[in-house]
Design goal:
Shape: globular
Oligomer: single chain
Number of strands: 0
Largest sheet: none
Radius of gyration: 17 Å
Strand content: under 5%
Number of helices: 4
Order of helices and strands: HHHH
Structural class: mainly alpha
Helix content: over 70%
Length: 126
């Protein structure tokens, strides 16, 4: 993971999500399935990377509490977003819901990137 920069990771995730959105907007069933796969692959890529970063950054004493709190926040966000996605899906269609999901993941990834960059700068200042 050390050899792979966070900037490259964000670029790959953004590329996958952008390609997924383009495929979703094409309206073809096969491309829609591929784009949904991109979204799930992106989420699956992020989880172990984030956990590895947390394990290296958080002290041993606080790690279990921090990861438990993070898991709670992820569950809470999921509980909020899932019904909202269901409402959008019911009111509009799968393509709009999938695009919205991809956009949310891209925004959260970008936000996370800037938090990581900021935390590295603060660590160097200490």
């Amino acid at each position: 993971m050390e050899k792979f920069s966070i900037r490259n990771l964000v670029a790959i995730i953004t590329g996958l999500l952008t390609l997924g959105v383009i495929f979703q907007l094409s309206g073809k069933s096969l491309l829609l399935l591929v784009s949904l796969g991109f979204i799930y692959v992106t989420v699956d890529i992020l989880d172990p990377i984030v956990m590895a970063m947390l394990n290296s950054w958080v002290e041993d004493k606080a790690r279990a509490t921090f990861i438990s709190g993070l898991s709670f926040l992820i569950s809470l966000v999921t509980m909020i977003i899932t019904p909202l996605m269901a409402i959008v899906l019911k009111k509009y269609n799968l393509i709009i819901t999938s695009v919205l999901t991809a956009v949310i993941i891209a925004l959260l990834s970008t936000f996370g990137y800037y938090i990581l960059v900021g935390s590295k700068k603060n660590k160097k200042a200490i």
